[in-house]
Amino acid sequence: MTPVLTLTDAVVEGPDGAVPVRWYRPACPVAPTLLWLHGGGFFRGDLDQPESDAVATALAERGVPVVAVGYRLGPVPGMPWVGRSGARARRPAPAAHDEVVHVYRSVAERAARGVVLGGASAGACLAAAVTGTLTSTGLDIPPPVGTVLAYGFFHARLPRDAGVLRSVRGHRRLTHAPWALDAANRAYAGTERMRTDRRAFSGGHPVDGFPPTLMVDADLDAMRGSGEQFAAELTAASVPLDRRVLAGSRHAFLNHPGTPDFTTAVDHIATWTAAR
Fold first, then answer.
1. Is 9 left (phi over 0), alpha (psi -120 to 50) or beta?
2. Mean pLDDT for the chain?
3. How many angstroms separate the CA atoms of 265 and 246, rounded?
4. pTM of the entire predicted model
5. What local confidence, expressed as pLDDT, does residue 1 receive?
6. Which of 35, 83, 166, 177 has its CA 20 to 30 A from that of 219?
7. Please, which residues bridge with residue 11 across strands?
8. d(C-alpha 67, C-alpha 57), whole Å
9. Would you place residue 2 in the very low, low, confident or very high pLDDT band (cuts 50, 70, 90)?
């Protein structure tokens, strides 16, 4: 019997050593290759977390080839000394951005139908930043044919939307409070200068060259304020945009396979990607 999909762990040589990647190849691909970036606030997460592995598996089962990237993590907020040594030592921006650009180049050379660049949460921020680089700097790499952004945040400072913030429930009223998210962003950027660099946060920078974009946002989520502002920036630049806000959903629903929000989002992503 032909397997539904095959998984292959590999590495791509990056600017500062090998970058782990995982290929998910459907038996009968029906879409461009999706280069997928997990979330985790820039300082946690890996190829085995559901937001990476379960999402990639579900999309591959729907015919979308996926390459998940174990990009270099950033400093832990408030504990910059943690993980500063070793082959995969933590580094602030633009280290993760630069690794993803290198992986994108490698994948684009093999993807006959082109590459869609996507991610969730911090991975969506990173995907948007890399999309900005690939579409604006004249690199000798084919640009993405699409961008998929799931409940991302795109601005160095979280936009304050009182109505959105009041909707947040549970522990995220603390962990996703504006001050906490701003602190995580400062740790990721590393310097004040990098906070204003589009390689760290694409919000507020020109997005004229962006390809068609799908945004799938959580409803009861502090980061929705950034998503709404970035969607307005894309629309103002005449970027073809399909934005879905899943009613009643909370941040990181792609970390919960088997739930209605997970399935709905994966179906949206698979259908939209196949249409590229």
1. beta
2. 93
3. 8
4. 0.95
5. 35
6. 35
7. 20
8. 10
9. very low
Q: Which one, of 94, 98, 75, 81, lies nearest residue 17 by Cα?
A: 98
Three-state DSSP class for residue 272: helix
pLDDT in tens, 39-56: 999 999 999 999 999 999
In whole angstroms, what is the distance from residue 43 CA to residue 252 CA?
15
What is the C-alpha separation between 159 and 169, in angstroms, rounded? Answer: 18
**Letter for the amino acid at 213?**
T
Residue 138 backbone class (left: φ over 0; alpha: ψ -120 to 50; beta: rest): left
Residue 55's identity, in one-letter code, is V
Could you report the per-residue pLDDT of 144-170, keeping only the tens digit for each? 999 999 999 999 998 887 777 777 777
pLDDT tier at 230 (50, 70, 90 boundaries)?
A: very high
Rounded CA gap, 81 and 93, in Å?
A: 16
Residue with tokens 């879905």: 244
